[in-house]
Amino acid sequence: MYINMKEDVNVNMNILMLSGDGVVTYESLIVLGAIVLLGLFMGKIVEKVRIPYITGYILAGLLLGGILVAFNFEDLMINLEVISSVALGFIAYGIGRELVFSKLRHTGAEIIVITIAQAALTTAVVSIGLLLLGVSLPVALIFGAIATATEPASIMLLTKKMKTKGPLTDTLIPLVGLDDAVGIVIFGVLLSIAKALEKGVQLSFFETIADPFFELVFSLIVGIVFGVIVAMIIKKTDKKSDDKYEVFLVASVFGVFLTVAVAKLGIHFGDISVHLSPILTPMVLGVTVTNIITRVNAHDTELAVDKFIPPILIAFFTIAGAELVIAFLGQTDIAYGAMIIVTSGYIGLRIFGKIFGSYLGARVMKSVPVIRKYLGVSLLPQAGVALGMAYQARSDFPSEGVTILIVILIATLFYALIGPIGVKYALGKSGESRVSESR
């Protein structure tokens, strides 16, 4: 009797493994393996024709996304969402590590003014332009807020790949990090205003800024707390130890994983829930760590992390391309004529806002010519943060949300393909690349 029961249990367990969530998880793992390999090879192929390898990752994702849809396997991508979140966390952590306060003493005001100038002008230009094209005021405000977001991943990877050094790079990297923080505030405020306009109600000043304010405050608190913990681990490690790089890497992975997880889960106080920024929180982690530890330890930490994250970043860009295809093909009842007009308007207006806004801010601050000329072109990439905002808008605006999402998906695809080329062009023309023949 005992033996039969044991056999029954084994059979039931096998059935669960063959038909339950376990199989779905392992199928997603197969897809992830294909994503990394396909993305790597596509990146190498496009580099042969002088196209940034990041664009190759996106193209690989588009191809894979079409294959998954054709064979009805698109649901497997849901299990890979955590990969994208972790990748964004490491990207933000890297941006934060570049924000060394001692370096920003002379350029901090310049970066802040340029960031606010380009973000505010981009929001205004996109909102007013789309309003003139017939888009409703609430939706135009949402598009204007989303337009501020700049994708840091391609910028960070290309500056490392091209080994750039100079005033443009020193301005671009911290500006991208600050830009996302400013964008979060603008999006939070304008989303509240747009929802009030949609419902025909009036919000007080406190109600308008409450959500983005608490999101920023708690993102800062959580990032600082985990940053102090990671920094203490790094500082306590023996500099002459053979395994110091392993400790630095593990401490960094711990910090990124925890900040991303807390940001995604949120903080709950009874019936009150506070959402955190999955970009800002790990970025503050990086800022805290790099400003507590020594310069030597900061360099060693960067070396350790840079050896760990390439497969994650390849997966991130390839998954982004696949998700664009899957999300677009999954939508129905689209007014294609109006969508094309709005999408074209959004893309053109955002490009103008980013380039002219950066130039205006740099002109006001009397920045060096290379910043005035090339900074705006370097800020065109847009992907993860913008998509997150678009998904939030879709959930808050049942009637117009799908249109917003589709427009941002198409625009994101455009920027994902063209943006890295613009960044590479700007970094190359600025003369800051230390690679003889940048690929």
Draw up the topology in text:
Blueprint: H1 2-19, H2 21-47, H3 53-70, H4 81-97, H5 101-104, H6 108-132, H7 137-146, H8 152-161, H9 167-199, H10 205-236, H11 244-265, E1 267-269, E2 272-274, H12 280-292, H13 295-306, H14 310-329, H15 336-364, H16 369-378, H17 384-396, H18 401-429
Antiparallel strand pairs: 1-2
Provide a quick synopsis of the model.
The chain is mostly helical. Helices cover 78% and strands 1% of the residues.
Structural descriptors:
439 residues; Na+/H+ antiporter like fold; 18 helices; 2 strands
CATH topology: Na+/H+ antiporter like fold
First and last CA, distance: 69 Å
Question: In the CATH hierarchy, what is the class?
Answer: Mainly Alpha
- Looking at the structure, what is the overall shape? globular
Q: Quick check: average pLDDT?
A: 79
Helix residue percentage = over 70%
String of helices and strands: HHHHHHHHHHHEEHHHHHHH
Low-confidence stretches: 1-21
Helix-strand category: mainly alpha
Task: Name the CATH architecture.
Answer: Up-down Bundle
Helix count, DSSP H or I runs of 4 or more residues: 18
Total count of strands: 2
Count of all domains: 1
Can you characterise this structure?
The protein is mainly α. The protein is globular, with a radius of gyration of 23 Å. 49% of the residues are buried. A two-stranded antiparallel sheet has the order 1-2. The chain has a single domain (34-429), classed as Na+/H+ antiporter like fold. It is built from 18 helices and two strands. A hairpin with a 2-residue loop joins strand 1 (267-269) and strand 2. The chain starts with a helix and ends in a 10-residue tail after the last helix. 78% of the residues lie in helices and 1% in strands.
